[in-house]
Q: What sequence folds into this?
């Protein structure tokens, strides 16, 4: 069901599996899904910002899936997507949602729980 | 009622082609909106919690899906699809079945503030896409967003949200769907987040007021662009049949008047009412103090109507049906037979059970369902308990107008409390009734008796007489009261007075007979005297006659003697005939 949009490159799924099997010391593999609606500047910016954050903080253990709702509108209901763009952190639990183009890196990190909110 | 309003709106429609409408299918609401919500435009329904917003929106969709073949999307921001399905199942709506037939889809949108963070710009394209794909999937013509304001709780950036909502309503218009947006009532504003700013075509306000512990639901059309609409607050009702609005305040006075007369069930009372009883379709009020037989009069009227084969509705605010049937059996009325034949229906409820509007609504509904010819409200005064006197008055006027419009004869009873002026009703309806019967008790000679008179009866020559009103095991009986030098007498006083009169009459009769006998005797005595006198006279006459005879005899004798003497003396012939003849011969 999950079709990947061709915004930019993405990590192959098999890598995530490998990362998971490598053990807890390397941390879990992050499953991220970015919902966009068409190739708007905001979507492109959101993907670029996300990519940057992941490369900085989750190198080698993340997986970004891009869902374009214009092409697959029926997927909006699954993750209760209203706002575009929305980043959904599927793994690790609990599920988190970050709406917006992620240009505020600090807030994005807090939202992804890569940085505790108290450190702000 | 219905016919009148439809006709009126039809006239308007002919003169000015009004806005295309999407019928709601809700009884009454289509009448006051002139056909429904604006087609292809958004309508805002606002109201406080529990006012019935979701239900109204749901009925709009279900009705569109079933009756007008307009599939609908229900986008729920508060309840899940299964919760909604459960909530409306009691109203007979099967959302799952409608979903299978692709007539109605419920889309539950969950917004969890705690799991959402915001960073940077965004828009609500996801919602648009989601709604758009749902609309396209079943070709929806109607959309409900219930309650879209929940977005304000889920998303922080109000600026974006407002801009997006404005875009959403524009988008809905462009899509050509008739949308209903529900919103919570705000402090000092129609909605908490000022949605009325964006939805400006039609705004409907639902209100749920509790006054004196009695709740009343009301609906008002705040605005409706391009449509003449009722501006009043209309009571509405949510019951097992769903949502119904009562546009009763729009009633006029154009009801059809009947010349037909119907019996009151009491022959003597019919006589008092111009000899023929009440006019059909009029309003009859029986007022009186406690225990004067108002309910019995009503029961007689109902019984007579059932005998004619007419359906009757009896609304009792004080007695249960069983109690009424039992009590009326004691005056020889078998009402149970009519309930069994479904000619008579009792509806008993305490006046305080609902608000006045609810009572009115329920009466409306039952009248529409049962289509009676006669409606009894017993007693109307107790309705004051459900509201205040003024509200009860307005409600009754509306009710009476409604019944008149339907050509239904209304029979109201009203208890007059002792302390107040008798010829006055607590609910001040005396001026709008057509026939007013008044029952009262007359306290005299150590007992109370019932009396009845016709205070007014429009359009007929009615009796001005006070009648004693008896409740016998064979029903109500009306008797002439005794009116004499001692005033109006009833009951035992009347009987004792009658006995006294009888005695007096007897005495008078005996006296007359006595006098008659005396006269007879006098006449006899006089006649006897007359007889005696006559006898005396006869004797006199006899005597006189005898004397005359004697005189004649004497005369004769003298003559004979003289002739004899002359003969003997050969006297001159001149003295006798024979002598003269002899002289001429000689």
A:
């Amino acid at each position: 069901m999950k079709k990947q949009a061709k915004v930019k490159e993405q990590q192959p799924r098999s890598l995530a599996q490998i990362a998971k099997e490598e053990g807890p010391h390397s941390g879990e593999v992050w499953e991220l899904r970015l919902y966009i609606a068409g190739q708007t500047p905001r979507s492109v910016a959101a993907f670029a910002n996300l990519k940057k954050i992941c490369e900085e903080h989750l190198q080698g253990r993340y997986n970004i899936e891009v869902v374009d709702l214009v092409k697959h509108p029926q997927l909006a209901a699954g993750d209760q997507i209203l706002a575009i763009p929305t980043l959904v952190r599927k793994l690790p639990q609990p599920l988190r949602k970050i709406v917006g183009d992620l240009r505020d890196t600090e807030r994005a990190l807090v939202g992804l729980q890569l940085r505790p909110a108290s450190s702000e | 009622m219905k016919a009148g309003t439809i006709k009126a709106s039809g006239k308007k429609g002919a003169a000015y082609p009004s806005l295309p409408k999407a019928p709601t299918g809700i009884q009454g609401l289509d009448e006051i909106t002139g056909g429904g919500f604006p087609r292809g435009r958004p309508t805002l329904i606002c109201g406080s919690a529990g006012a019935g917003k979701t239900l109204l929106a749901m009925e709009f969709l279900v009705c569109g899906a079933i009756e007008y073949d307009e599939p609908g999307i229900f986008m729920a921001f508060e309840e899940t699809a299964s919760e909604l399905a459960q909530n409306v199942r009691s109203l007979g709506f099967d959302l799952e079945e409608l979903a299978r037939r692709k007539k109605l889809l419920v889309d539950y949108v969950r917004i969890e503030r705690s799991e959402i963070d915001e960073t940077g710009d965004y828009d609500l394209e996801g919602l648009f896409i989601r709604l758009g794909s749902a609309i396209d999937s079943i070709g929806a013509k109607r959309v409900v967003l219930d309650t879209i304001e929940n977005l304000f709780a889920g998303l922080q950036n109000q600026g974006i949200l407002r801009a997006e909502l404005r875009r959403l309503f524009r988008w809905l218009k462009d899509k050509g769907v008739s949308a209903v947006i529900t919103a919570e009532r705000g402090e000092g504003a129609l909605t908490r987040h000022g949605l009325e700013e964006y939805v400006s075509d039609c705004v409907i306000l639902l209100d749920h007021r509790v006054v004196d512990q009695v709740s009343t639901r009301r609906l008002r059309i705040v605005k409706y662009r391009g449509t003449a609409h009722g501006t009043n607050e209309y009571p509405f009702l949510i019951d097992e049949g769903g949502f119904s609005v009562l546009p009763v305040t729009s009633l006029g006075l154009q009801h059809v008047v009947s010349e037909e007369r119907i019996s009151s069930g009491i022959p003597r009372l019919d006589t008092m009412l111009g000899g023929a009883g009440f006019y059909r379709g009029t309003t009859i009020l029986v007022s009186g103090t406690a225990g004067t037989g108002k309910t019995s009069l009503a029961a007689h009227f109902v019984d007579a109507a059932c005998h004619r084969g007419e359906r009757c509705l009896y609304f009792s605010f004080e007695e249960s049906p069983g109690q009424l049937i039992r009590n009326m059996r004691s005056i020889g009325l078998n009402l149970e037979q009519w309930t069994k034949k479904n000619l008579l229906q009792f509806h008993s409820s305490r006046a305080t059970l609902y608000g006045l509007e609810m009572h009115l609504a329920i009466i409306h509904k039952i009248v529409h369902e049962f289509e009676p010819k006669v409606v009894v409200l017993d007693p109307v005064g107790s309705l004051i308990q459900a509201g205040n006197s003024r509200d009860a008055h307005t409600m009754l006027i509306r009710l009476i107008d409604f019944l008149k419009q339907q050509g239904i004869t209304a029979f109201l009873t009203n208890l007059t409390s002792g302390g107040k002026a008798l010829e006055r009703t607590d609910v001040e309806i005396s001026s709008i009734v057509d026939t007013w019967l008044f029952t009262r008790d007359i306290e005299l000679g150590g007992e109370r008796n019932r009396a009845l008179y016709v205070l007014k009866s429009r359009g007929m020559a009615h009796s001005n007489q006070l009648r004693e009103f008896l409740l016998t095991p064979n029903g109500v009986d009306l008797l002439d009261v005794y009116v004499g030098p001692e005033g109006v007498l009833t009951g035992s006083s009347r009987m004792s007075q009658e006995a006294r009169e009888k005695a007096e009459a007897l005495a008078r009769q005996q006296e007359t007979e006595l006098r008659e006998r005396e006269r007879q005797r006098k006449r006899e005595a006089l006649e006897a005297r007359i007889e005696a006198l006559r006898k005396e006279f006869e004797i006199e006459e006899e005597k006189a006659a005898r004397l005359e005879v004697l005189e004649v005899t004497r005369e004769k004798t003298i003559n004979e003697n003289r002739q004899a003497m002359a003969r003997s003396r050969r006297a001159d012939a001149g003295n006798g005939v024979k002598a003269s003849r002899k002289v001429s011969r000689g």
